[in-house]
Write a structure and sequence with these properties.
5 domains, single chain, Rossmann fold, 6-stranded mixed β-sheet, 21 helices, alpha/beta, globular
Length: about 625
């Protein structure tokens, strides 16, 4: 039986329809990711599920007795109490009693008669509601999350506040957990920790994320919100991408065929007098129906189109730092740091929040000076710097005014373009292009920063958290631009896949001012770190969690195949073909419009079988690749 039903949900903002008859069901144990472009209504849908937002029409039904908890995109940050009190609030009134009980314990030695009476009353209320078991649950959740119970919430960083908010959601032991951008404000190691934590969560998950590695690791099903409609895609993100491409191709062909038919009918209706005298009234009615159908069709918004010209070639040496020391607020960020950046290098910066990644960029760019050592910059450098705080944008000016003082005509990489046309490449409608920056969403501000950044050629591209607030499609477009860029590249990002796909080496902040360089991306660093013997200096001191262990290094001299393994290799193609056929059949079944209207038990069995087949297919592919490599 499904835990959550969404039945014909409708919601509009003004004349814009965000949710147009949305239907869905969430089964026990599922991990469902809700995806879609910025502004499509994903967060609105979650708020409707939690009851924070009222739908215009439709019903949200929770299974009787099922408990629901949620983590908002921006958890409450103005809380004045301790972490224990904040987490305990997830238990409602009982949590408030427990928090007050623990607060009184600290003052019992000096308690007066009134305080003792309050303490005894609290004890009785807690015992009557089996509150001690709930208190143990609060303690266990806080311990598992590594939360400092007596510390004020106001003293925590953004990542730790998010962790506290997650604890607050978990103490109620929810059957279904709703998470809106849970990786916001987390560094890479925090994201890896949260990923492992949620993979072990026994309830159902419905979450929104733009982190592709996080999505791929967790989701067992994808819900896509597109032009007001919700579609279900069984399997992981990689399977969704394959099937989505097939669907969009089929949709494009169908629309082209429809438009061709409509054009033919429009030509016919406009023929001469003789034709109009004898025209078929049934055909006229069909034309009217075609016009209405075309009018009702909501075309998909175009894809963002970004590009950056590297311009003139810089000198061979871009940066050289020697024996650099740098401290801020009494904390050593760099100690005896040495670095040489050559023209064309592609370097990612990895480390916990507050380790000094953004500060290192400012040091290299000459915005701050080192305490000791030297930093030299190369010649003929033209820099494009993406600041994660978007300080280059004036919130009181419009998007157009932020580009070039409000000029209608812009010079983009040496060519004249209209400002509206240029911003359309970054998915701005004319209305949004004329809106103040303060009225834009986070994703729109990010795209505006990129539009401003890419106006002129630059042979040094410095990106400080460029992926924040970008939806999956805009993120992939930015990735394509960065991949095609021929200049020198420095990137700070907590997006593991973005780092893996765009850089050739990483600088890792490993605690106490130690920064070391590794060949490859984030995944390559994990493998290299796992294969090295751990030392005190190689453990990140500023982080409290550790990424999952990387797989062991492949032996340099694998043994050849034995008789049984050769036979296994010979049989694997047939097994893979059988599994692929079953997967295709099950996928087609679950994609049908009436699948989730069937018996809940049958739906659950089918989904479990699809997941099992997909997992077996992945294992079969991996085994085939392993045996083939050893045979070769």
């Amino acid at each position: 039986m499904a835990l959550l039903y969404l039945d014909d949900i409708h919601f509009s903002v003004g004349t814009r329809v965000l949710l147009d008859g949305v239907n869905a069901a969430i089964e026990p144990g599922e991990r469902v990711c809700l995806i879609g472009r910025n502004g499509e209504g994903k967060s609105t849908l979650l708020r409707i599920v939690t009851g924070e937002q009222r739908a215009d029409a439709g019903d949200v039904r929770l299974s009787p007795g099922a408990r629901l908890a949620s983590l908002a995109q921006d958890p409450r940050l103005d809380y004045s109490g301790t972490v224990r009190e904040y987490v305990s609030e997830g238990l409602g009134e009982l949590g408030a009693d427990l928090a007050r009980y623990h607060a009184l314990i600290e003052h019992l030695a000096d308690a007066d008669e009134a305080m003792m009476r309050e303490f005894e009353t609290l004890q009785q209320r807690i015992e009557a509601r089996d509150g001690w078991r709930a208190d143990q649950r609060v303690q266990a959740v806080m311990q598992r999350l590594g939360l400092p119970g007596e510390r004020p919430v106001a003293d925590l960083s953004g990542g730790w506040r998010r962790r506290a908010a997650l604890g607050r959601a978990l103490v109620s032991e929810p059957d279904i957990l709703l998470l809106d951008e849970p990786t916001n404000h987390l560094d890479i190691e925090g994201i890896a920790w949260l990923q492992d934590f949620l993979r072990d969560f026994r309830g159902a998950l419905l979450f929104i994320t733009h982190d592709r590695a996080f999505l791929q690791a967790l989701a067992t099903r994808i819900l896509e919100l597109d032009r007001g409609q919700l579609s279900s895609w069984p399997g992981d993100y990689a399977n969704y991408l394959r099937r989505k491409e097939e669907r969009e191709h089929a949709e494009s062909l169908a629309n082209a065929d429809f438009d061709k038919k409509l054009a033919i009918e429009e030509v016919w209706i406009r023929q001469g007098i003789e034709a109009r005298r004898t025209r078929n009234e049934g055909r006229v009615r069909r034309l009217k129906a075609l016009r209405e159908e075309r009018s009702a069709r909501v075309d998909r918004q175009g894809r963002a189109s970004m590009s950056l010209d590297a311009g003139q070639v810089s000198g061979k040496r871009v940066f050289e730092a020697e024996h650099v020391d740098l401290s801020l607020g009494g904390k050593a960020l760099l100690r005896d740091f040495n670095l040489r950046v050559q023209r064309g290098d592609r370097i990612g910066l990895i480390g916990p929040n507050g380790a000094g990644k953004s500060t290192l960029l400012k040091l290299l760019l000459g915005e701050i000076a080192p305490d000791a050592g030297t930093v030299e910059r190369g010649t003929q450098l033209s820099v494009a710097f993406f600041d994660q705080h978007r300080s280059a944008l004036d919130p009181e000016r419009t998007a157009i005014e932020n580009l070039d003082g409000g000029n209608d005509m812009l010079e983009i990489n040496g060519e004249k373009r209209h400002a509206i046309s240029y911003l359309r490449d970054f998915l701005f409608t004319p209305d949004r292009a004329r809106s103040k920056v303060s009225a834009l969403s986070g994703g729109e501000r990010n795209r505006l920063m990129l539009a401003k950044l890419f106006m002129q050629p630059a042979n040094l591209l410095v990106l400080d958290e460029p992926t924040n607030d970008l939806d999956l499609e805009a993120l992939e477009v930015l990735e394509e631009v960065v991949l095609g860029y021929t200049g020198t590249l420095l990137i700070v990002s907590h997006d593991r896949e973005f780092i893996d796909n765009t850089v050739t080496s990483v600088l890792v902040f490993e605690g106490e001012g130690q920064v070391n360089e590794y060949v490859g991306g984030y995944s390559d660093w994990l493998r290299q770190r796992a294969s090295a013997a751990p030392t005190a200096s190689s453990v990140p001191k500023a982080a409290s969690v550790t990424p999952p262990p990387a797989p062991a290094a492949t032996p340099t001299a694998p043994r050849k195949l034995g008789f049984k393994e050769q036979r296994e290799l010979d049989e694997l193609p047939a097994r893979i073909e059988t599994l692929e056929q079953e997967q295709a059949e099950l996928t087609a079944l679950t994609a049908s419009a009436d699948f989730y209207q069937g018996r809940p038990e049958a739906v659950k069995i089918t989904l479990e079988r699809l997941n099992a087949v997909s997992e077996s297919l992945g294992q079969a592919y991996a085994r085939w690749e392993e045996l083939e490599a050893r045979r070769g």
